[in-house]
Design brief:
- With about 190 residues, the protein is of the alpha/beta class.
- The protein has a single domain, classed as P-loop containing nucleotide triphosphate hydrolases (Rossmann fold), CATH 3.40.50.300.
- Helices cover about 60% and strands about 10% of the residues.
- It has nine helices and five strands; from the N terminus they run βαβαααβαβαααβα.
- α4 packs parallel to α5.
- The relative contact order is 0.20.
- Bound molecules: adenosine-5'-diphosphate.
């Protein structure tokens, strides 16, 4: 069982690379953003709560997000490994994840960070907004807010894993294939 956290700012390419890793290694992909968006589509109570934060570029509160993650995670007792994408995004979420996994005798093998320069992120997100239908990608002020939240609340999560000797960074700039190859190398080394 290999549990991996794919990390990086909004627009780093986590979703794109997750699709590749799932196909190649058979991970169960848990993306909190995707789960929130699917709830919004189905007009659930959770969806409407999440939307009120997401549309402003803010984080959904930890208590809601952690409960959701735990319940999704528990649906896959036979998983050979999980790929966590967009979670953990705060120090409290990182601690909660360690706790959830430890209770099941598991742990995170590595956090892999996709590093992308800031100017490139803005361009990518605005470009994605033209086709993704995501309101949070269409508005430059919301994009700026998401990047600010990333710096203030999410970037420190990297240090949490660094302290455990589990953080590895790769460049998120280049072709999808070259980044996928770099990810594959890291995964094969752990
Ligand atoms: P991106 O990384 O491109 O911003 P995501 O799909 O990961 O896209 O997240 C979209 C939004 O969903 C975030 O801006 C936030 O509002 C909410 N969200 C996703 N994951 C979390 C999380 N772990 N904790 C709190 N909010 C989250």
């Amino acid at each position: 069982m290999k549990n991996i956290v794919l990390f990086g700012p909004p627009g780093a390419g986590k979703g794109t690379q997750s699709a590749f890793l799932v196909k190649k290694f058979g991970f169960v992909h848990l993306s909190t953003g995707d789960i929130f968006r699917s709830n919004i589509k189905q007009s659930t109570e959770l969806g409407s709560l999440a939307k009120s934060y997401m549309d402003q570029g803010k984080l959904v509160p930890d208590s809601v997000t952690i409960d959701l993650l735990k319940s999704e995670w528990s649906k896959y007792p036979e998983a050979i490994g999980f790929l966590f994408d967009g979670f953990p995004r705060t120090h409290a979420q990182a601690e909660a994840l360690d706790h959830i996994l430890a209770e099941a005798g598991q742990s995170i093998a590595a956090m892999i960070g996709l590093e992308v320069p800031e100017a490139e992120l803005q361009t990518r997100l605005l470009e994605r907004g033209k086709t993704s239908g995501r309101p949070d990608d269409a508005n430059p002020a919301v994009i700026a807010q998401r990047i600010a939240v990333y710096h203030n609340e999410t970037a420190p999560v990297q240090r949490y894993y660094e302290a455990q000797g589990k953080y590895q960074a790769i460049s998120g700039v280049g072709s999808i294939e070259s980044i996928a190859a770099a990810l594959e190398n890291v995964l094969q080394s752990i």
